[in-house]
């Protein structure tokens, strides 16, 4: 039991979440809301600062003399082709969010900013900020650091391994190291269950909108059970046979719907939105990164930007761990370019196409569409040729993205609870798959998903500190390696 202390503490935390969701949901929700509001009000600036540091550090390391260092021995080569590698990291890090928010976020911002030409431009610039370099840099910090220590220094696949230059081997294996790993598990459990819960609700809403499938607890149970069976089976098959195969399917489906929607939608508007928004994003990158609105109302900032920053940080451990696992043999420069630039460009294209699809409609139709965030995409697609076909593809994408995100979460949790084993046993994968499906189901039934969502935001605060220290540890290790040369 002492050897697997992180595993047992993790199980205890998950059990506590389930118990609170069942027995004291109102108190749990109220407490997490209060804690989240406190952090947003008094430490919103800290989230902004950390995310900017992650971008600057990642790019700085990549294009420095250390960029040529490999995540592994000097003679190691990548395990996966560029296409499969990109498909897996993209699906793990952001897939389901693009389908859900691709049209919904631009239209929501457009209406809240006044619903005119200036509001449309500002809405798209904010969307590019939220889904651009910042989130992927947060993933890159964990993935790059863990990949370096795991594959080049032969350390266990644990977040605590990153702190070897600071704590030493004894400190990493001691209470501080265990605390770091438990924080990573806490964020992963919250992020995984929240993502699966949201995906379940979105799938149910889409099926209801298209095929009048009722939005009931029983339907949600069926959806979660089906997803659990699929994501557990693919996780058990392993990355090569299960996750890689499904990620490749995601890749094809995503580009099929993106190209199709571009062709049926306002093509010229999509191109102009992409060019204009990209220019605005780059031009005001630094200013927007530090925009804390000190003399005005912070409600929008807390509900969107700071919320997103905390959300991406909370996702850092399990997404970063997964992309580290699939990136062995790549140089740091190749890793950062692949993890930050490539997915960001695809996200920019995606939001330009799907955002233009909605912004091309009249204001009255947009106002009607944003009444229900979960169905915005389907309401908008209905106004275009082949809208039902692309709506069905979107539901398929929601399902496959839910599964691939779950795969990365299960893999990370299994690694964390197996002393960092890069190939954790199937028993752990099955256990975590079933346990987290149960957690998601309980919280959905009890209405406690909001509390879990807030919990992941709270978990981001200590994680942000851990990630800042991870930057220091990685730089220290790289400098040490450089002096040896």
Automatic annotation (TrEMBL):
Name by which UniProt lists this protein: BCCT family transporter
NCBIfam families according to UniProt: bcct
One Pfam family in the UniProt entry: BCCT
InterPro entries: BCCT_CS (IPR018093), BCCT_transptr (IPR000060)
UniProt key word Mitochondrion: no
Subcellular location, principal: membrane
Keywords: Cell membrane, Membrane, Transmembrane, Transmembrane helix, Transport
Source organism (scientific name): Lacrimispora xylanolytica
Taxonomic superkingdom: Bacteria
PANTHER family: HIGH-AFFINITY CHOLINE TRANSPORT PROTEIN, HIGH-AFFINITY CHOLINE TRANSPORT PROTEIN-RELATED
Transmembrane segments: 45-64, 85-104, 133-151, 179-198, 218-239, 251-275, 306-323, 335-355, 389-418, 430-451, 457-478
């Amino acid at each position: 039991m002492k050897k697997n202390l992180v595993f047992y503490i993790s199980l205890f935390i998950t059990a506590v979440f389930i118990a609170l969701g069942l027995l004291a949901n109102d108190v749990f929700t109220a407490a997490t809301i209060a804690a989240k509001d406190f952090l947003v009000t008094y430490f919103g600036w800290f989230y902004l600062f950390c995310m900017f540091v992650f971008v600057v550090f990642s790019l700085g390391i990549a294009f420095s003399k250390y960029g040529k260092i490999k995540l592994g021995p000097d003679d190691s080569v990548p395990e996966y082709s560029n296409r499969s590698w990109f498909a897996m990291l993209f699906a793990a890090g952001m897939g389901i969010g693009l389908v859900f928010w691709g049209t919904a976020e631009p239209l929501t911002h457009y209406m809240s900013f006044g619903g005119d030409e200036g509001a449309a431009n500002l809405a798209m610039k904010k969307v590019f900020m939220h889904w651009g370099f910042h989130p992927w840099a947060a993933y890159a910090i964990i993935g790059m650091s863990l990949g370096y220590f795991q594959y080049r220094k032969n350390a266990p696949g644990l977040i605590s391994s990153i702190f070897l230059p600071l704590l030493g081997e004894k400190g990493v294996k001691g209470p501080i190291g265990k605390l770091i790993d438990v924080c990573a598990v806490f964020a992963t459990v919250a992020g995984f269950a929240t993502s699966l819960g949201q995906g379940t609700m979105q799938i149910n809403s889409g099926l209801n909108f298209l095929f009048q499938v009722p939005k009931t607890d029983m339907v949600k149970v069926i959806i979660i059970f089906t997803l659990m069976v699929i994501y557990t089976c693919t996780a058990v098959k392993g990355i090569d046979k299960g996750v890689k195969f499904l990620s490749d399917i995601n890749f094809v489906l995503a580009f099929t719907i993106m190209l199709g929607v571009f062709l049926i939608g306002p093509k010229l508007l999509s191109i102009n939105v992409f060019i204009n928004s990209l220019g605005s994003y780059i031009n005001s990158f630094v200013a927007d990164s530090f925009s804390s609105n000190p003399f005005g109302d912070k409600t929008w900032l807390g509900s969107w930007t700071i919320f997103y920053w905390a959300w991406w940080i909370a996702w850092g451990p399990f997404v970063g761990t997964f992309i580290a696992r699939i990136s062995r043999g790549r140089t740091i420069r190749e890793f950062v370019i692949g993890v930050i630039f490539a997915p960001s460009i695809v996200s920019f294209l995606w939001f330009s196409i799907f955002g233009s699809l909605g912004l091309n409609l009249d204001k009255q139709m947009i106002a009607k569409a944003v009444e229900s965030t979960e169905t915005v995409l389907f309401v908008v697609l209905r106004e275009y040729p082949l809208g039902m076909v692309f709506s069905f593809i979107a539901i398929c994408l929601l399902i496959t993205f839910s599964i691939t995100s779950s795969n990365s979460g299960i893999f990370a949790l299994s690694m964390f609870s197996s002393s960092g084993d890069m190939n954790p046993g199937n028993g752990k994968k099955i256990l975590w798959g079933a346990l987290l499906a149960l957690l998601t189901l309980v919280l959905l039934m009890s209405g406690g998903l909001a509390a879990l969502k807030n919990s992941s935001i709270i978990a981001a605060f200590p994680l942000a500190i851990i990630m800042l220290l991870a930057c220091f540890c990685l730089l220290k290790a790289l400098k040490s390696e450089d002096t040896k040369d």
